[in-house]
Amino acid sequence: MKPSQEQINQMEQIQQVDFALVELTLYLDTHPQDYNAIQQFNQLAVQSKQLKGQYEQQFGPLKQFGGSFSSYPWNWIDSPWPWQM
Amino acid sequence: MYTPIKWYHPYASTADPCPPIEWKYYQTPPNLYLGFQPTGLPQFPLKEALYKGTLWPVLFDPYPSHVRGEDH
Amino acid sequence: MWYYEKKLQYPVKVSECNPRLAKFLIEQYGGADGELSAALRYLNQRYSIPDKVIGLLTDIGTEEFAHLEMIAAMVYKLTKDATPEQMKEAGLGAHYANHDHALFYHDAAGNPWTATYIQAKGDPIADLYEDIAAEEKARATYQWIINMSDDPCLNDSLKFLREREIVHSQRFREAVEILKQEQDKKKFY
After folding, report:
1. Whole-structure pTM value
2. Domain boundaries, chain C
3. Which of B55, C134, C154, C181 has the most Cβ atoms closer than 10 angstroms to its Cβ?
C-alpha cells in the first residue's frame, strides 16, 4: 500500500522534532552543564513521544523489542519500510 | 567573521595538455573557526533546523558556497 | 543494545531512476570515509577512550547508522526498477553480474569494504584526530558527489549529510578540548 500524504506529513513532523533532539544530544555530550539546553531537550522529548504515539495509532509501530505496542494482527512487519516511503 | 571558501592560482605550464583551471577553490567550514561552542547561541526554528542539517546558524555552511568565483 | 526505529532521519527523495548516481553514492556506503566506516570506527573506539567522551562517540556512531540507512535508501530509489541494460549503461554492469540490484559494501570503484579503513590506536588524541579527519574527508566526498549530481532532490539529502559532517567534526574538536583540560581546573562551559 502506498503511504498516504497524511502518513508522510506526520513522519516529517517527527523527523523535525527528533532532529533537534539529535543535535541537542551531541551538544549536551560536550556541554553537560547547559541547563537551558537540558530543559529544551526534555520538552522536545515529551513532544516527540506525543507525536509518535499519534503516528503509531494510525500507521503502526515505530520501535521494536517492546518500544512500541502492537495491534492485532502483528503489524510491525507491514510495509512501507523507511526506504520504501 | 570568516569566509567559507578560499582559493589559489595553480601553476600552469604551456606544456599542460588540458586548458588550465585558473582558480582552485576549497572549503573552510565554520567548525574550523568556532572553537568550543558557547552556550545560548541562537537556533533555527524547529521546523527549519532539519532542512539546514543543524540546529545552530553559526554551524550552518551552505554548499556550494555563494561567494564561489565571484571575485575572480 | 540498539533499537531500530522504523523511520529515516531525513525525508530522502530522488527525482528519477538514475543508476549512474547510485554508482557514485556507493562510495559513502562501503567506501573508506563512508558511513559504515564512520559508525564502526566510533563505536569501536569508545571502549578505550576516557569516560568523558564515550557518550559522544556512542551517539555520533549511532547517528552514522542512520546516515548509512539514508544512503541505502537513495541507492535503492535510484536503481529500483532499472533494467539490466540501464545498469550496464550506468557502469554498473559488473555490479549487476555479481549482485543484481542488491547493495554491497564496496566503494565507487568496486573495492570491497575492509577493516583497514578504520583505525583504533588506543591513544585518545590520536583517535579523536582520526575522527576529525574522517569527518572532513566525508564532507569532501559529499562535495564531490554533489558537484557531479544534477538531481536537486538527491542533492538536498546530500547537503544534509554534508552539514552533519561539519557538526560531528565540531563535537570531536570539542572532545579534544575536554581531554586537553588541566585536571585541577574548573570547567567554564
Report:
1. 0.95
2. 19-103+119-180
3. B55
